[in-house]
Specification:
The chain is mainly α. Helix content is 58%, strand content 0%.
């Protein structure tokens, strides 16, 4: 079974028609048909799959961390806010120790105040007085306090 010397064999023809770069590219890029998959996600690069997974997972983690707060009642919070006035100087109250710096909380966002109070209660924020104050109230009381304090006008 010898081939005719005047007819170039198939391998030699393929090599003559393609330069070395094309041969290398076909060897590296082309896969056998059995190794191909029908799932389009399996054809994407690993980095793109990781990015898509992060885009899908991260918002779900954020929603779990910021659970909706209990709805606060500002009228009930007003009765509880007397404990805040000593340090925070709410509604015209003058602090006896002006050199002791405390944040002004009147008019802050209700969500921010509620989150801060819950973090003090859980011990995530470190201030012994605020931890003790927050731990003395129920979660609903803290929501009421946040609603009242956020409703106050700032000067």
């Amino acid at each position: 079974m010898t081939s005719d010397p005047r007819e170039p064999d198939r391998f030699r023809c393929a090599c003559v028609l393609m330069n070395g770069h094309d041969i290398l590219r076909r060897l590296l890029v082309t896969r056998p048909r059995a190794a191909r998959t029908r799932n389009p996600l399996m054809r994407m690069p690993l980095l793109m799959n990781a990015a898509i997974a992060a885009l899908l997972i991260l918002p779900a983690l954020g929603q779990a961390a910021d659970a909706p707060a209990a709805k606060g009642d500002a009228a009930q919070g007003k009765d509880l806010a007397y404990t805040c006035q000593g340090c925070h100087g709410i509604t015209g109250y003058k602090n006896a120790y002006p050199s002791y710096h405390v944040p002004k909380i009147a008019g802050q966002s209700e969500q921010y105040l509620h989150n801060a109070l819950m973090e003090y209660k859980a011990g995530k924020r470190k201030h012994p007085t605020m931890q003790a104050q927050a731990q003395s109230f129920s979660d609903q009381d803290l929501a009421n306090l946040a609603a009242y304090l956020s409703s106050l006008k700032t000067k």
